[in-house]
TrEMBL record:
Organism: Gordonia tangerina
Topology of this chain in the membrane: Multi-pass membrane protein
Name of this protein: NADH-quinone oxidoreductase subunit N
Location of the NADH:quinone oxidoreductase/Mrp antiporter transmembrane domain: 191-498
InterPro entries attached to this UniProt entry: NADH-Q_OxRdtase_suN/2, ND/Mrp_TM
A Pfam family of this chain: Proton_antipo_M
Gene name linked to the record: nuoN
KW Metal-binding (keyword) present: no
Top-level division of the source organism's lineage: Bacteria
GO molecular function, one term: oxidoreductase activity
The protein's Enzyme Commission number: 7.1.1.-
Membrane-spanning residues: 14-37, 49-71, 91-110, 169-187, 193-214, 226-247, 277-299, 311-332, 344-363, 370-389, 395-418, 449-471, 477-504, 525-546
Function: NDH-1 shuttles electrons from NADH, via FMN and iron-sulfur (Fe-S) centers, to quinones in the respiratory chain. The immediate electron acceptor for the enzyme in this species is believed to be a menaquinone. Couples the redox reaction to proton translocation (for every two electrons transferred, four hydrogen ions are translocated across the cytoplasmic membrane), and thus conserves the redox energy in a proton gradient.
Enzyme class: translocase
Reaction equation(s) it catalyzes: a quinone + NADH + 5 H(+)(in) = a quinol + NAD(+) + 4 H(+)(out)
């Protein structure tokens, strides 16, 4: 290539204003890495907390500012970075929702009143080295967070004990969470498959690490991290292979260009759509894995149970928002011309997801696993909006994501405050989370406020009127029925009835069953967790009584920039 030819190449312009929400989050994450490297240990926790919450609030302000600028005068948004990123109405809606969930998640991760561990020895006191040093510890305790003090130490060893006594904190969770949030914000905004793959890895890799950092039940946590990593790597490989097939079939990785070629081939009687269908199938495997749809759901119960509860709450809410945003963009903008081919497959996936999740949830005895299978069922409900494949379906999907995100986050946060009776176990001086459903018997009578809030979340999951879940299900069922998918609506109602059984079962146990021996107690959290649960409760009730503002916002946002 000659110098003259090189001179004709135009460098892509970077629209910093449109990209500012993501740039702020990524920038704060990088600063957080530097804080972790250079700040004294005693200052890391408060520095990270202020930096993370401040950065996310700034990102939220940036999202609102960009949304006002991009939609002024009926605008649909713009494509930036040579088409690699699309800042349109669905992108801005989902980014705003992600940032709100991220603020609550960071506050929950910073909680330090739910765990108590052995305190550091008094000045001048020495403990012998080697095995048995743990037995010489004093019984004084201090408050701690819900993350292991040393991710590299072997569980239940003196190394872990001494790391706890030394006051070790895994404050790396804050920059890791922000990196994941940045990747999630980019994922539904991607205009080409290569950028989408990069965003997928950017938010997946931190999550793999976060899942293995639980302070309690370390072996289960590490198992969850390994399972998520291995299965996630396979899913990412399928996605990348699908991108390769899409490029081979259309000559482009841009979603808009792929859509034009696919539409042209679908309109021609002799058009060859074999390669595009293979590409879509492989891409769908990677995306349906992230949303937890059957048959790509096997990781969800183990990972949700083993991961630290703040990470579980964050994943259950934020990952679904990002993954469904990307799924909608791929199907709507790139492969809409093949709807007659992929719609029957999506029907089967939606039916299996709704029924398998509901039936399996009935058999669970662990609250976190029950909520995990519940999330699978809700993924099936949300898929009905994609099957509808119109603006009403897109709007219903986005409203459902908003309603479900706050309800599921609040439910997992509530689980974290219910604790077994205090007893010493190694370096731990407080009880573990009481996740066995039998332990929740009588909890609502002894702690009416906690029981009422958790019941509200469960009723929202069941779709009971005056909760956000009822409006969300009604909206998505109406969109599916309007597009001719009445059979799916009937199956969805049946699945909801099955799900209502195990939700009501827990409510009955909390308020009407006898209190068991060694009944758990509720630990009063700090204002960080309390405010997060309170906001989720208010949103769950508010969207059930006054849903119209968010319904209008979702309807106005339901149009992709082609």
């Amino acid at each position: 290539m000659t110098v003259a030819q090189l001179a004709l190449i135009e460098a892509p312009s970077v629209a910093y204003g449109a990209l500012s929400p993501m740039l702020i989050v990524f920038g704060v994450a990088v600063v957080g890495v530097l804080v972790e490297a250079f700040t004294p240990r005693r200052l890391r926790y408060p520095t990270h907390l202020v930096l993370s919450l401040g950065g996310l609030v700034a990102a939220l302000v940036a999202v609102i500012t960009v949304a006002v600028a991009q939609t002024r005068g009926g605008g649909l948004g713009e494509s930036v970075m040579s088409g690699a990123v699309v800042i349109d109405r669905p992108t801005l809606f989902l980014q705003g929702l992600l940032v709100l969930i991220a603020i609550a998640s960071v506050a929950f991760m910073a909680e330090r009143r739910l765990e108590r561990v052995v305190a550091a020895p008094a000045p001048g006191q020495r403990l012998s080295d080697g095995p048995g040093a743990a037995a010489q510890a004093t019984l004084s305790s201090v408050e701690a967070d819900m993350f292991t003090p040393s991710g590299a130490s072997v569980p239940n060893t003196d190394a872990e004990f001494e790391a706890t006594r030394a006051g070790g904190l895994t404050t790396e969770v804050f920059p890791l969470t922000l990196l994941a949030v940045g990747g999630m914000m980019l994922f539904p905004a991607c205009g080409d498959l290569l950028t989408m793959f990069i965003a997928l890895e950017v938010f997946s890799l931190p999550l793999y690490l976060l899942c293995g950092l639980a302070r309690r039940r370390r072996l289960i946590s590490q198992e969850a991290s390994l399972k998520y990593f291995l299965l996630g790597a396979f899913a990412s490989a399928f996605f990348l292979f699908g991108a390769a097939f899409a490029y081979g079939a259309t000559g482009s990785l841009q979603l808009g260009a792929i859509g034009e070629v696919v539409d042209a081939a679908a309109r021609e009687p002799a058009g060859d759509t074999v390669l595009p269908l293979i590409a879509l199938g492989l891409l769908a495997v990677g995306l349906l894995f992230k949303v937890g749809a059957v048959p790509f759901h096997a990781w969800i119960p183990d990972v949700y149970q083993g991961a630290p509860t703040p990470v579980t709450a964050f994943m259950a809410a934020a990952t679904k928002i990002a993954a469904f945003g990307a799924l909608l963009r791929v199907f709507y903008t790139a492969f809409g011309g093949l709807r007659d081919d992929w719609e029957p497959v999506l029907w089967a996936v939606a039916i299996a997801t709704m029924l398998v999740g509901a039936v399996m949830a009935v058999t669970q005895t662990d609250v976190k696993r029950m909520l995990a299978y519940s999330s699978i069922t809700h993924a099936g409900f949300i898929l009905l909006g994609l099957v509808a494949f119109d603006e009403a379906g897109l709007a219903a999907t986005m409203f459902y994501l908003a309603a479900y995100a706050f309800s599921t986050f609040g439910a997992f946060a509530t689980v974290a405050v219910v604790r077994e009776p205090d007893r010493q176990s190694g370096p731990h001086m407080s009880g573990r989370e009481a996740t066995d459903i039998a332990q929740w018997a009588g909890l609502g009578r002894r702690y009416p406020l906690v029981g009422a809030m958790f019941s509200m979340f469960l009723l929202a999951f069941a779709g009971i009127p005056l909760t956000s879940g009822f409006i969300a299900k009604f909206d998505v069922f109406a969109a599916a029925a309007g597009s001719g998918a009445g059979v799916l609506v009937v199956i969805g109602v049946i699945s909801s009835a099955i799900a209502a059984y195990f939700y009501v079962r827990i409510i009955v146990a909390m308020f009407f069953a006898d209190v068991p021996v060694d009944a758990p107690h509720v630990v009063k959290p700090s204002v960080l967790t309390t405010s997060s649960i309170a906001v989720c409760t208010v949103v769950t009730i508010g969207l059930g009584i006054f849903p119209q503002p968010l319904l209008d916002l979702a309807a106005n946002a339901a149009q992709f920039l082609s």
